[in-house]
Amino acid sequence: MIESRKSDHVKICLDEDVEVEKNYWNDIKFYHQAAPEIDFEDISLGVDFLGKRLSAPIIIAGMTGGYEGAEVLNRRLAETAEEMRVGLGVGSQRAALEDKDLRKSYELISDHSIPLLFGNIGAPQLISQDEEQPFGISKGKEALEMIDGDYLAVHFNYLQEAVQPEGDMKSKGVTKALKDLSKEVPIIAKETGAGISPGTAMSFRDAGVEAIDVGGMGGTSFSGVEHYRIDDENKKMKDIAKDLWDWGIPTPVSVVECRGRVSLPIIATGGIRSGIQIAKALALGADAVGIAGGLLPAIEKSKKTAIDYLKRLKRELKITMFLLGCEDLDDLMSVNRVITGELKDWIE
Ligand SMILES: Cc1cc2nc3c(=O)[nH]c(=O)nc-3n(C[C@H](O)[C@H](O)[C@H](O)COP(=O)(O)O)c2cc1C
């Protein structure tokens, strides 16, 4: 059941348009510098992030694993992250934690030298849903050991759960469970496309997480994905999923507001599709970006296509920095930017 859900998600994201209507990164503008007074070749994208050296502040966000067919994708993802020296998050390891036969697509990742690697479990599994035993510290450790990972991403996907006919809707005690887990396992708290509010970021910080991936609204809509996954007979849930398609806090809003409240490292995932958008995320206060939906069609084609996609993003980020007169990411983080349109209303 869970394994078929994961393969459905990949298939739907490849076959259907599941982006939200508005990409809020477009509401941020930069001041062009006609005389940048730097040389393009001197620009450096390298960054130390979460104790690891990356060639650019890019993480391939958690997408997949744990079903037949996922091995090919995960091997390509691992090879791409290894060759490009960027971070990688795996998709939810829930199925593999429940059934040892489904581990192969995760275990193969540890054959690769990936500079920064995140495991992944769902926050709803930290507490008891129905009769199920919650995932505790031992399962958290097991997930990281399965891939030889550096941090365990705990995803908060209650929007997605809420629009699923079979969704896990219990949330009482989830932050306490996160706190218990983070005493023993290094945790990144992540959303999956609906964003993290500053209040939630503060309670995650108090729970002891090492970083926050705001996973905001603006790219892949998981309500949209579920809309396509729900049977046509279940018109009521299908319609609800459609109504909640654009639910959430836009990624740039989540970045600005969380940055203002917590000093933890912040990953901006949600709607990052270009190098200019990476520059915008860093200029707003993110330390790195995460990319999922934008990379998926490339990774489905081949490792080469995925590498070309990431090379394009890096080249575009470098060009943006050149035109802003920024030699490194510290310069970029303090560059002038203008917030316009609907994004301005949100932030004000
Ligand atoms: C096919 C697909 C599967 C995903 N599966 C997971 C998952 O298992 N765990 C998770 O934390 N996030 C998952 N995500 C969410 C992404 O990590 C990311 O937060 C979200 O898609 C927003 O980023 P994007 O706009 O770049 O796609 C998935 C995304 C996609 C596209």
Ligand roster: flavin mononucleotide
**How many helices does DSSP assign?**
16
Q: What assembly state would you assign to the polypeptide chains in this entry?
A: single chain
Separation of the first and last Cα atoms: 44 Å
The first-level CATH class is given as Alpha Beta
The major β-sheet equals: 8 strands, parallel, barrel
Instruction: Return the string of H and E elements.
Output: HEEEEHEHHEHEHHEHEHHHEHEHHHEH
Strand residue percentage: 5-15%
Could you say which structural class the secondary elements and strand pairing correspond to? alpha/beta
Q: Into how many domains do the coordinates divide?
A: 1
Q: What does the overall shape look like?
A: globular
CATH fold-level topology: TIM Barrel
Unreliable segments (pLDDT under 50, ≥5 consecutive)?
none
Helix content: 40-55%
Query: What would you say the CATH architecture is?
Result: Alpha-Beta Barrel
Mean pLDDT: 96
Strand order of the largest sheet: 4-5-6-7-8-9-10-11
In CATH terms, the superfamily is Aldolase class I
Let me know the number of strands. 12
C-alpha Rg, in Å? 19 Å
How do the helices and strands line up, and which of them pair or pack?
Layout: H1 2-15, E1 28-30, E2 47-49, E3 52-54, E4 58-60, H2 70-84, E5 87-89, H3 94-98, H4 104-107, E6 117-122, H5 137-147, E7 151-156, H6 158-163, H7 174-182, E8 187-191, H8 198-206, E9 211-213, H9 222-229, H10 235-243, H11 251-261, E10 266-269, H12 275-283, E11 288-291, H13 296-301, H14 303-324, H15 329-333, E12 337-339, H16 341-347
Parallel strand pairs: 4-5, 4-11, 5-6, 6-7, 7-8, 8-9, 9-10, 10-11
Antiparallel strand pairs: 1-12, 2-3
The protein binds flavin mononucleotide.
Flavin mononucleotide binds at residues 9-10, 13, 61-64, 91-92, 120, 153, 155, 190, 192-193, 215, 219-220, 269-272, 291-294, 296.
